[in-house]
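Handout, section 3.2

Students often ask what a structure token actually looks like in practice. Rather than define it abstractly, here is a full record for Programmed cell death protein 4. The first block is the sequence as you would receive it.
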Amino acid sequence: DVENLSDALFSGDEENGGSEERKTEINGNWIPATSITEAKINAKAKRRLRKNSSRDSGRGDSVSENGETQKTGVVVPTSPKGKLLDRRSRSGKGRGLPKKGGAGGKGVWGTPGQVYDVEEVDIKDPNYDDDQENCVYETVVLPLDERAFEKTLTPIIQEYFEHGDTNEVSEMLKDLNLGEMKYSVPVLAVSLALEGKASHREMTSKLISDLCGTVVSKTDVEKSFDKLLKDLPELVLDSPRAPQV
């Protein structure tokens, strides 16, 4: 009878063409075999994901319940720290853009192309000073010392030997604060001319003549030649014909 019953069951499945699913009883409930297979596959996939998540725990990654990998280094907006870093509107309105186009914060330059008007002085300001309206600001140029004088004027005179324009030299010397070193201008010019050509010495004579009365005074020229005569023994070491020249 049992054999006939089993044959009848299988014959019934064959007659129905396999339309009915095979069911299995679990905990008193009949569950289709296909559902069990899917449950096993899902459980196996979850175990595999848990195993991978434990391996990658030191890398800063985590696996969600849906199997999606998430970066643990990213601050979740729902956390207190995430709320501080979140620039979206607290009220839920707006598109998350900066206020006033990025020109409304403290210490910002303003929107591109913005032109600021001249700030007017407030007379009622406690720090207002009446004298500041009448202030005159001038550029102060420090006088040249002996070392800076020679370093600055040597290239100017050497360039003059190239172009021969005394007006250019005069304009350049006026921009400098020569101070008490004015008398050293002819001294340096003659010293450089002694080491050069005869044409350089002729140009130096013309330069001293044009600078006298504009950059240097007659007294400065007299003082400069007195110094040249005193320094003549030292000039002979570099230019043996210095006394005759």
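Discussion prompt for tutorial groups: The two ends are 149 Å apart (CA to CA). How would you have guessed this from the sequence alone?
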